Amino acid sequence: MKSALILFPGINREHDMARALQRAGGMAPTIVWHKDTELPPVDLVVIPGGFSYGDYLRCGAIAARSPIMRDVIAKAEAGVTVLGVCNGFQVLTEMGLLPGALMRNADLRFVCKDVLLRVETTDTRFTNRYRKGQTIRTPVAHGDGNYFADPETLARLEGEGRVVFRYASADGDIDETSNPNGSIDNIAGILNARGNVLGMMPHPEDHIELAQGSTDGLGIFESMVAALETA
Ligand SMILES: NC(=O)CC[C@H](N)C(=O)O
Question: Which residues cross the membrane (predicted)?
């Protein structure tokens, strides 16, 4: 699996992401600077988390208008797999590759802790290694993770099976107590209509080895590798 990691000033999870990809059996990703205009031939484009441009304007808004993004859109439209995590998810919504928006956390505080996610669908190139309904542990670290979409968009996301992860309690219940940021319907990750672009707020790349508390995040990277091998 050949992959590219897009780097903006202020991004801080690129090494974690590269490690997760390699641990899952992928090759070391090519790091692509945001001012470049063309991606190398790749199977996967990753937009890692962090604080691109210091979160000025809105999280991800400036990064979304970087020169390289024209080619990211072209690759996404051509069916290449695109993964955006945390700030990467914010960038994808700002680019219009994913619907909705990530607003300030409901309590206006930065949240940094482990959360549980319920895997809502395994019929994707990002989650085929999980069981439907499985709860996985991953960390969140963000100030603007409060997902919002209008009722029509939400109905489409639900109807088309594009809500991939929801914040859940240990027994899989979806309620307010397990929602770290006020996201509508506890949504933590969504897909585009074609199914090749995933955005999620939690950081699966930071739960890939036991020293980190769990290996639950590795499944996303293994799923992408498996999907590409069978494609
Ligand atoms: N870890 C991250 O990617 C954080 C994203 C963004 N800077 C926020 O605080 O919401």
Answer: none
Report pTM. Answer: 0.97
Q: Which of 14, 34, 86, 94 is catalytic?
A: 86
Instruction: List ligand 1's pocket residues with C-beta within 6 A.
Output: 49-51, 55, 59, 86-87, 141-145
Nearest to 180 by CA among 85, 105, 86: 105
| Contact between residue 68 and residue 39 where contact means Cβ atoms under 8 Å apart | yes
Cα 199 to Cα 82, 108, 164: the distances in Å are 8, 22, 9
pLDDT single digits (tens) 55-96? 999 999 999 999 999 999 999 999 999 999 999 999 999 999
Domains annotated for the chain, with CATH where assigned, are: 3-230 (3.40.50.880)
Distance 62 CA to ligand 1 centre (A): 14
Q: DSSP code of 123?
A: -
Q: Whose CA is nearest to atom 7 of ligand 1?
A: 51
